[in-house]
Write a structure and sequence with these properties.
There is one protein chain. By secondary structure, the chain is mostly helical. The protein has one domain. It is built from four helices and no strands. The two termini are 19 Å apart.
Length: 101
C-alpha cells in the first residue's frame, strides 16, 4: 500500500516525467502499470492469505523489498523506465502472494 500512496502523492510529477521522457507511450504504460498494481493490492486485501504456505514468507519479504525500491524510484524520479520496471516487479511479487490463495 505504501507504493500506491507514494505514487498518488507524486502522480503529477510522475506523469510529467513520463511524458517528458517517453511521450504518450510512457504515460500510457505508467497508467497501465499503476492500474495493475492497484488491482493486485485489492486482490491481496480481499484474499485469505496462505500464511502457512512455505513460499509465503519469501514472497512477502520480496514484495516488501520491491515495494521499498519502487517507493525510492518514485521519489527520486530519475528515470521513468526504472519506475515502470519497478512497478512491474512489485506487481509480479504481489501476484505471487495472491496466487498462493
Amino acid at each position: 500500500m505504501d507504493a500506491i500512496t507514494s505514487f498518488d502523492n507524486n502522480r503529477v510529477a510522475l506523469y510529467a516525467a513520463a511524458y517528458a521522457q517517453g511521450g504518450d507511450d510512457a504515460v500510457n504504460t505508467l497508467a497501465a502499470k499503476y492500474a495493475a498494481l492497484s488491482t493486485q493490492y485489492q486482490q491481496l486485501l480481499a484474499s485469505e492469505l496462505a500464511v502457512n504456505d512455505p513460499a509465503y514468507q519469501n514472497l512477502s519479504d520480496r514484495a516488501g523489498q520491491e515495494t521499498a525500491a519502487l517507493k525510492n524510484s518514485i521519489t527520486t524520479m530519475n528515470d521513468i523506465n526504472q519506475t515502470i520496471s519497478a512497478l512491474s516487479t512489485v506487481i509480479t511479487a504481489v501476484a505471487g502472494i495472491v496466487a498462493l490463495v
